[in-house]
Amino acid sequence: MERSSSAVMAGLQPNSLICPFASSRNGCTLFLPIPNSFSSAAGQSRHCLPPLSLKLQKQTAFTPYHVNQTDSPFKLFSVSSHTLSNETIQLADIDWDNLGFGFCPTDYMYVMKCGRDGNFSKGELQRFGNIELSPSSGVLNYGQGLFEGLKAYRKQDGNILLFRPEENAMRMQVGAERMCMPSPSVEQFVEAVKATVLANKRWIPPSGKGSLYIRPLLMGSGAVLGLAPAPEYTFLIYVSPVGNYFKEGIAPINLVVEHELHRATPGGTGGVKTIGNYAAVLKAQSAAKAKGYSDVLYLDCVHKRYLEEVSSCNIFVVKGNVISTPVIKGTILPGITRKSIIDVAQSQGFQVLTM
Question: Which cofactors are named for this entry (predicted)?
Answer without folding.
Answer: pyridoxal 5'-phosphate
